[in-house]
Design brief:
Layout lengths: L6 E2 L7 H16 L7 H23 L4 H27 L7 H8 L9 H14 L31 H9 L6 H14 L11 H25 L4 H27 L14 E2 L3 H8 L2 E2 L3 H6 L6 H6 L8 H14 L6 E2 L2 H16 L1
Parallel strand pairs: 1-2, 3-4
EC number: 1.14.19.3
Protein name: Linoleoyl-CoA desaturase
Organism: Fibrisoma limi BUZ 3
Length: 358
């Protein structure tokens, strides 16, 4: 992590965000809407949890063939991705509900995915959302195993082929929680970024360890104890579930920042980024158009520009806010990066992998 605190400075373009925020506030006032989620979002959360837990329950019933259970593992993978994008993500940003305990409850769904809430909030909410696409600070683009996602990372010969094998590595995202969470906790405790990160308390460490033990009991011990699955069959199902979840989650997240037009600004020697924070978000983030059903499933993350500008507003509002953001950006001469389709976004990401690799 960087030793110097990164700061955003550009008074000439600071008019954009106040103007945009005023228009967004006016929209919610005129529509008499809350910026948080509603009952439909709670129902969506319950659906996503069922997509994860119902197949799990069917596996535990021990009434199906091994092949059927493998199909259930795929559904659990989709459920894991759905919970991550459409439930846990909003809840950890405080936008799932205007009731704090409901946000806390649904943010805890991350423990069912093998992750840790505090680590997520530090890595995602604090570092990624504040310092988007800045090398050494935004961990989403820095120091990835066999991947070069930042122009500032060291380039190795194997990176020439990363556009071929990258999607296989994306499938390891959720299973990596087992190691990554402990490494992150250690790093955050010993290298606090400009005092943005508080040291982990004994309670935080206990939750980290206890949640991992719970997940192992939930995902491994219980199925092996009460079903006829062999260890090999269980391991295959475990791998399929996590690969499905990791592939979906990683791909959607990569389409927001590792595509053509999404910049990777570098701070100067004093840690200054020559832009206002909101302008930085516009320059480093991209949207992509996709069918409404896919947008619903991925928690509105096809509208990443709106999400990065207003992370505490629920994703159910992003489609309505998109024209407001785009119009305001055009008036201020600021780029609004939007890929016309999901395939175009995938293609753009692959092109960027090639550029970064070669």
């Amino acid at each position: 992590m960087r030793k110097k605190t990164v700061k955003f400075q550009n008074k000439d373009k600071s008019v954009f965000f106040p103007m945009l925020r005023e228009r967004v506030d006016q929209y919610f006032a005129e529509q008499s809407l809350s910026k948080q989620g509603d009952q439909q979002l709670v129902c969506k959360g319950i659906f996503m949890l069922c997509l994860l837990l119902v197949p799990y329950g069917l596996i535990l019933s021990n009434q199906f063939t091994a092949w059927a259970m493998l199909g259930f593992a795929v559904l659990m993978g989709l459920g894991t991705a759905g919970v991550g994008m459409a439930v846990m993500h909003d809840a950890n940003h405080g936008s799932f509900s205007n009731v704090p305990w409901i946000n806390t409850l649904f943010s805890s769904c991350l423990y069912l995915l093998g992750g840790n809430v505090l680590n997520w909030k530090i890595q995602h909410n604090t570092l990624h959302h504040t310092y988007t696409n800045i090398h050494d600070v935004d961990e989403d683009i820095t120091g990835k195993f066999l991947l070069r996602l930042s122009h500032s990372d060291e380039r190795k010969r194997i990176h020439r082929y990363q556009h071929i094998y990258a999607f296989l590595l994306y499938g390891l995202m959720t299973v990596s929680f087992f190691i990554k969470d402990f490494r992150q906790a250690y790093r955050y405790n010993h290298k606090q970024e400009g005092k943005l990160i508080k040291p982990f308390s004994n309670r935080d460490v206990a939750i980290l360890i206890g949640s991992k033990v719970f997940y192992l009991l939930f995902i491994a011990v219980l199925p092996l104890l009460i079903t006829d699955l062999t260890f090999g069959q269980w391991l295959l199902g475990f791998a399929v579930m996590h690969f499905t979840a990791g592939l979906v989650l990683s791909t959607i997240f990569q389409l927001a920042h590792i595509v053509e037009g999404a910049e990777q600004p570098a701070p100067d020697d004093s840690g200054i980024v020559g832009n206002a924070w909101a302008i930085h978000q516009m320059q480093t983030t991209a949207n992509f158009s996709c069918p409404k059903l896919l947008s619903w499933f991925i928690g509105g993350l096809d509208f990443q520009v709106e999400h990065h500008l207003f992370p505490t507003i629920s994703h159910i509002h992003y489609r309505a806010l998109s024209p407001i953001v785009q119009r305001t950006a055009e008036e201020c001469g600021i780029p609004y990066n939007n890929k016309a389709s999901f395939p175009e976004a995938i293609s753009s990401h692959i092109k960027m992998l090639k550029v970064l690799g070669r």
